Amino acid sequence: MNGKNIALGAFILMSTICYGQNLEFSGYFENQLFPQKIGNEWKITDYNKLRLNLNSEISEKVSFSANYIYKTYHGNTSFNMIDFMPGRLVNSYASFLGVNQDSLRPLFEIEQKDENFLDNAYVTIYTKLFTIRVGKQQLPWGSGYTWNPTDIFHDKNMTDPTYEKVGVNAFKLDVAISNEGSITGIISVSDDWKKTTKAIKFHDVWGNFDFSVSAVEKYQEEIDFFTFQPANERRRMIGTDFSTELLGLGLWGEAAFNIMDESENYGQYLLGVDYTFENGLYITGEYYRNELGKTNKVDYKLSDWMRLFGNQGTNLGRDYLFLGQSYPVAELLNWSNYSIINLSDGSLILFPWVSYDLNDNTDVSFVGYLPIGEEETEFGEFGAGGFARIRVYF
Q1: Of 104, 165, 256, 302, which is the most buried if we count CB atoms within 10 A?
Q2: What DSSP element (H or E) covers 388?
Q3: What number of H helices and E strands is found in the chain?
Q4: What is the pLDDT of residues 281-336, one digit of tens each?
Q5: Each residue of 93-136: pLDDT tens digit?
Q6: pLDDT at residue number 2
Q7: Which residues 6+ apart lie within 8 Å of 67 measured at CB?
């Protein structure tokens, strides 16, 4: 039995013991079927996911929470990044290396393997003056829906921005400075102090105006795709975000300026708005500017395309628009349409979305996505696809 299976067994045993002691034990099972057109072929991937949650109020001053995930993949589990990039750039890259395109494919292969890991596990200690949280935990920063310029801890899935994110190993200290104001300090340990991520955030609420100011220092790793060697660069981010309500409209925004040690400094900015009508119709929109992006598709480089698949998840273009609509067709049935538009190259992707609650513990979602755009644009290189998801809570 390997270490992961031992850890899973220990988690289940601990959960069973806690359940017997009337402590909180919960979770869900999820299945997702994911068809996608790659080139001229349709590929189908399917996964099963089991999430186990354990929460324990050990005392008035100490609590413990943990989540374990077991996930198995089926169907087509192998993808190649080359299939999602312009052939011209790939051929140029192969010529530079003196090889043919087929010999490059093994270097750009992505294999979705079964997963078995501790998602979150942390202890929280409460005192009158401060709260300390230690362990693998969620560190959500920012007010944006589709993008979060100020969040350097989590990656966001553009096709499903609200989907749960993997925890971050960190020490977090919260100090209350008013009824709703606080100062938060975070340390996420790396192999030495220099590369350890350090962050501080000031947050407060004035009336219906919720805002924060933050500063972060981290070392981020990127791959040089000409040498295939990793390179670390220090990134210092100064950011702010807010959310408020004005004349029935919800308003929010984020701004982050990134100071880089070697590459060019850049800013990221977001402004969002939403409104709900009396009949339940909900509309929303966000504008996003990423100064790291390009203003024209002819300026996209191989390294830009590779960032789409990397841990930064940075878009190719400079200016984007997100538009969304949601409407409760029936008591348990919701119909939505979302779109993300790359204003820099004119491409876009549409997401029709239908969700239905079978009961209090079961929900089903059917989501499609339709990319539209010319060749070599960000969304024009992607094939159509979607997913069907069922989740059962217990």
Answers
A1: 256
A2: strand 385-393
A3: 4, 20
A4: 999 999 999 998 999 999 998 888 887 776 555 789 999 999 999 999 999 999 99
A5: 888 888 888 888 888 888 999 999 999 999 999 999 999 999 99
A6: 60
A7: 51, 52, 53, 54, 118, 119, 120, 121, 167
Element (H, E) at 91: helix 87-97
Q: How far is CA 86 from CA 89, 297, 305, in A?
A: 6, 11, 9
d(C-alpha 184, C-alpha 175), whole Å: 6
Q: Which of 38, 37, 105, 43 is nearest to 73 (CA)?
A: 43
**Whether the Cβ atoms of residue 52 and residue 71 lie closer than 8 Å to each other:** no
Sign of CA dihedral 143, 308, 258, 223: positive
Between 48-52, 56-60, 65-69, 368-372, the lowest mean confidence (pLDDT) is in: 56-60
**Containing H/E element for 12?**
helix 3-20
Query: Taking phi first (over 0 means left), then psi (-120 to 50 degrees means alpha), and beta for anything else, what does residue 270 get?
Result: beta
Query: Can you give the pLDDT at residue 326?
Result: 97
16 Rama sector, left if φ>0, alpha if ψ -120 to 50, beta otherwise: alpha
- Per the listing, tokens 């929280």 go with 124
Q: Which residue has the higher pLDDT, 30 or 2?
A: 30
